[in-house]
């Protein structure tokens, strides 16, 4: 009754193929954006920014990146943590070497550097497929983290082996370093997330995205109909690594402020991002956001309930959280292998008919 | 000469480590062959088995922390200790129970899904078991003692000393691990070649549908295979646990087993052994010769990079079945 397409007439192909073909969806999207940009920055508190919204946006970018590679192009990667480390260390090196250039540009450049590294580690995907590739990407994960720990040049020979972000500002607003206000952090991440989601959406529905999906569905068949597997796989690796690199750079410079390769960007990060993609839904932009939101909120929620309300010790809560996350992943794979995105689609289909389903 | 002797000691130690890797890799191969599932949880199974073994041995109350957090009672242990052998038997039973549960709750519902979905499900399982193990038995680092000899083997030292004038340092535990691994592999091969269930297992590995059509119960075979894998995990858990203590990092050994598998090929038991040995020796030698030049700790990544490079030239691994793709 509320959600329907009756009366929503399309008079051109352009109207028909837009991202949100239904008027209600479109207005809902604009409203969400307006709230995100115009309302939340004024009411945000440090707690909400640091434990919910900023990590959500950053992980959403990373999940978008991995979703492009795994969900759209079908190449499973367990190297996201390593690539995030590349983004973080690249942004650190750039920010300390060229302090006069805006850090926002450095973040994008860091993404570009990660893309190059990603393509390098993606090259074996031309020969290796499936599990074998997943394991091969572990090489990237472990090698990169080791590299950032062992070569002092990467952390500017600091005694602790950590990298710490210098204070930088943009248009008079401090956006990195300990002085950053909650709303500045949030707005920077939101800007990147919205921009990159827009890019991802338009890449995946264009020619590039179609070649990715062709490779995912069956690479030999795709090759026969004229998709070049080299360009398709390499663009997938490049774009995906770009996103993940930007996420890593933001995670380090805006969110954490300091990082250490093996702790911040360990193998668990790779799995976390992979879970976001699976729970959210493979091959869905919305799913990346949904998965990130779910896995960022779940620990916060569990902690509030178990530690805050029931008074359990934190380590017990952490163990229970592991169990719940694991069980949920299995549950989702059994009940809905296409993730939250599919649930959302089904809900929308049902809503269209509601309250007269026949 | 001196250098060469050091290097050969490194090689021998690498071989021993390789055997340990191969032990974990074996569990992977078994499950992969019989059900086509790439079981990421194998390492966590080993951790879980080792934790359970210690828990049973020391008579710990399962979920003691949880119970005391919820009810306020203070429970710690039942106050008895169980002899090692009995504890190992009981743990093996627990692993069989776990196999039945995994089959009934997870695998049964995922029949016919894509391999990658099954792989992800085992990652979920790994997280679950990791949480469960910690919740049941506590997360502290524990030492495992089942009566395996440990420490420097003096026989080897005196023997090599009289032969080369330089005594090799070899842990007795490693020697035992090698013997146990050899026995385990031999009995697994005998089981799959000469028993009815073993043949049924190979039939399932060959073709699920054909096996079903001649009356083999797929579910039974899966439970059996997961039980065997659980048992292999128990053995691996005992070995690694005795060697380096039972803690979370034990489950990361599973990750080390992955390049071993890739080298050897996912479907080959001898491949798992050879792959394990190559990785074990390779990473120790690399650390010995190249490690000091690049800052050490190369063991973290060497295995993966080696496997990666190797796969580029031979995508199915050393002994794997040739991958044939059709449209």
UniProtKB/TrEMBL annotation, chain A:
GO terms for molecular function: branched-chain amino acid transmembrane transporter activity. It is a multi-pass membrane protein. Keywords: Cell membrane, Membrane, Transmembrane, Transmembrane helix. Signal peptide: none annotated. The chain crosses the membrane at residues 27-49, 56-74, 101-123, 130-148, 236-259, 271-296, 316-335. GO terms for cellular component: plasma membrane. The keyword Cell membrane applies. It is found in: Cell membrane. It holds the Pfam family BPD_transp_2. It comes from the Bacteria. PANTHER family: ABC TRANSPORTER PERMEASE PROTEIN, HIGH-AFFINITY BRANCHED-CHAIN AMINO ACID TRANSPORT SYSTEM PERMEASE. This is Amino acid/amide ABC transporter membrane protein 2, HAAT family. It comes from Paracoccus solventivorans.
TrEMBL record, chain B:
GO terms for molecular function: transmembrane transporter activity. It is a multi-pass membrane protein. This is Amino acid/amide ABC transporter membrane protein 1, HAAT family. GO terms for biological process: amino acid transport. Keywords: Amino-acid transport, Cell membrane, Membrane, Transmembrane, Transmembrane helix, Transport. Belongs to the binding-protein-dependent transport system permease family. LivHM subfamily. One of its GO terms (cellular component) is plasma membrane. The keyword Transmembrane helix applies. Pfam families: BPD_transp_2. CDD domains: TM_PBP1_LivH_like. It is found in: Cell membrane. The chain crosses the membrane at residues 12-32, 44-65, 85-107, 116-139, 175-195, 216-240, 260-281, 288-313. InterPro entries: ABC_transp_permease (IPR001851), BCAA_transport_permease (IPR052157).
């Amino acid at each position: 009754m509320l959600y329907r397409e009756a009366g929503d007439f399309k008079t051109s192909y352009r109207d028909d193929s837009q991202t949100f073909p239904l008027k209600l969806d479109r207005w809902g999207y604009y409203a969400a954006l307006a709230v995100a940009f115009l309302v939340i920055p004024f009411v945000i508190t440090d707690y909400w920014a640091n434990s919910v919204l900023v990590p959500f946006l950053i992980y959403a970018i990373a999940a978008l990146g991995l979703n492009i590679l795994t969900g759209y192009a079908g190449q499973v990667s367990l190297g996201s943590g390593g690539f995030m480390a590349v983004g973080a260390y690249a942004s650190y090196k750039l920010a300390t070497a060229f302090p006069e250039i805006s850090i926002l540009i450095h973040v994008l450049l860091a993404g570009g550097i990660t893309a190059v590294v990603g393509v390098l580690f993606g090259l074996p995907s031309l020969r290796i497929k499936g599990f074998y590739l997943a394991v091969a990407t572990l090489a990237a994960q472990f090698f990169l983290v080791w590299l950032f720990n062992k070569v002092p040049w990467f952390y500017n020979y600091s005694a602790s082996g950590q990298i710490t972000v210098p204070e930088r500002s943009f248009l008079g607003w401090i956006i990195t370093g300990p002085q950053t206000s909650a709303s500045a952090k949030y707005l920077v991440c939101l800007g990147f997330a919205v921009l990159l989601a827009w890019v991802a959406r338009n890449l995946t529905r264009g020619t590039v995205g179609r070649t990715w999906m062709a490779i995912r569905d069956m690479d030999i068949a795709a090759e026969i109909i004229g998709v070049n597997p080299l360009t398709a796989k390499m663009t997938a690796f490049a774009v995906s690594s770009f996103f993940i690199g930007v996420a890593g750079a933001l995670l380090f410079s805006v969110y954490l402020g300091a990082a250490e390769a093996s702790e911040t960007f360990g193998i668990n990060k790779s799995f976390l991002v992979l879970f976001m993609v699976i729970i959210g839904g493979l091959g869905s932009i919305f799913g990346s956001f949904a998965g990130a939101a779910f896995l960022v909120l779940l620990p916060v929620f569990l902690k509030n309930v178990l530690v805050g309300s029931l008074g359990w010790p934190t380590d017990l809560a952490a163990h229970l959280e592991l169990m719940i996350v694991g069980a949920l992943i299995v549950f989702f794979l059994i009940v809905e292998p296409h993730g939250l995105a599919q649930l959302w689609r089904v809900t929308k289909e049902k809503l269209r008919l509601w309250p007269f389903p026949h | 000469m001196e250098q060469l002797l050091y290097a050969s000691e490194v090689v021998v130690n690498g071989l021993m480590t390789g055997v340990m890797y191969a032990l974990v890799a074996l569990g992977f191969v078994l499950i992969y062959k019989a059900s086509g599932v790439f079981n990421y949880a194998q390492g966590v199974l080993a951790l879980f088995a080792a934790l359970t073994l210690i828990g049973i041995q020391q008579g710990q109350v399962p979920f003691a922390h949880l119970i005391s957090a919820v009810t306020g009672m203070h429970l710690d242990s039942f106050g008895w200790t169980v002899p090692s052998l009995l504890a190992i038997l009981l743990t093996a039973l627990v692993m069989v129970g776990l196999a039945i549960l995994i089959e009934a709750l997870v695998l049964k519902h995922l029949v016919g899904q894509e391999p990658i979905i099954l792989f992800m499900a085992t990652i979920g399982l790994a997280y679950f078991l990791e949480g469960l193990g910690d919740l049941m038995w506590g997360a502290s680092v524990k030492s495992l003692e089942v009566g395996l000899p440990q420490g420097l083997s003096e026989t080897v030292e005196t023997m090599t000393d009289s032969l080369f004038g330089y005594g090799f340092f070899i842990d007795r535990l490693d020697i035992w691990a090698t013997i146990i691994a050899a026995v385990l592999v031999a009995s697994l091969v005998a089981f799959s070649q000469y028993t009815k269930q073993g043949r049924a297992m190979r039939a399932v590995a060959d073709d699920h549908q054909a096996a079903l059509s001649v009356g083999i119960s797929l579910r039974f075979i899966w439970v059996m295979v997961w039980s065997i894998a659980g048992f292999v995990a128990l053995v691996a858990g005992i070995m690694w646990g005795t060697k380096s203590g039972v803690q979370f990092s034990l489950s990361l050994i599973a990750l080390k087993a992955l390049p071993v598998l890739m080298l050897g090929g996912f479907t080959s038991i001898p491949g798992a052994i050879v792959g394990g040995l190559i990785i074990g020796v390779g990473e120790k030698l690399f650390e010995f010769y190249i490690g000091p030049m690049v800052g050490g700790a190369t063991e973290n990544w060497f295995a993966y990079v080696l496997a990666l490079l190797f796969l580029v030239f031979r995508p199915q691994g050393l002994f794997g079945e040739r991958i044939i793709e059709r449209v």
